Automatic annotation (TrEMBL):
Belongs to the universal stress protein A family. Residues 1-136 form the UspA domain. InterPro entries: Rossmann-like_a/b/a_fold, Universal_stress_UspA, UspA. This is Nucleotide-binding universal stress UspA family protein. It comes from Nesterenkonia xinjiangensis. PANTHER family: STRESS RESPONSE PROTEIN NHAX, UNIVERSAL STRESS PROTEIN UP12.
Length: 142
């Protein structure tokens, strides 16, 4: 395998399950795993507490999520890289996968049942538009 595996995360338990499956796949295929969190807006906010002030942005929050998930996935036999990418989740994952010449995008199957399935989901959009293979991880099972 020559290209990396990409997994989309948003801090949810189902995305975490997809990330765990992506790590197992990356280890089996000896491929780097890019843990990607997307942010649609590039808003910044100043947060104050007493005399302290922090500037917080959507990009920072996405990077924080990717780093935290990547940290929990650490394994000696896996190369895991956290990334944050601007754009709507499906578009961001597809664009990033093309940029790094990924072999596989892993997404969870959250919202692929019922009415949401008809209206769309990240997994649905990625599976129909990605230029690489897509693995849809079953995140409903325990």
């Amino acid at each position: 395998m020559s290209g990396p595996i990409i997994v989309g995360v948003d801090g949810s338990p189902t995305a975490r399950k997809a990330a765990e499956k992506a790590r197992a796949l990356a280890i089996k295929l000896n491929a780097p795993l890019h843990v990607v969190s997307a942010y649609a807006d590039d808003r910044t906010e100043v947060v104050s507490s007493g005399s302290d002030q922090w500037v917080v942005s959507d990009a920072d929050n996405a990077r924080y999520i990717a780093e935290k998930v990547a940290e929990t996935l650490k394994a000696p036999e896996a190369e895991i890289l956290p990334r944050s990418v601007h754009g709507k989740p499906a578009d961001a994952l597809i664009g990033y996968a093309e940029k790094v010449d990924a072999d596989i995008i892993v997404v969870g199957n959250q919202r692929m049942r019922g009415v949401s399935r008809v209206l769309g989901s990240v997994a649905n959009s990625v599976s129909h538009n990605a230029t690489c293979d897509v693995y849809i991880a079953n995140t409903y099972a325990d």
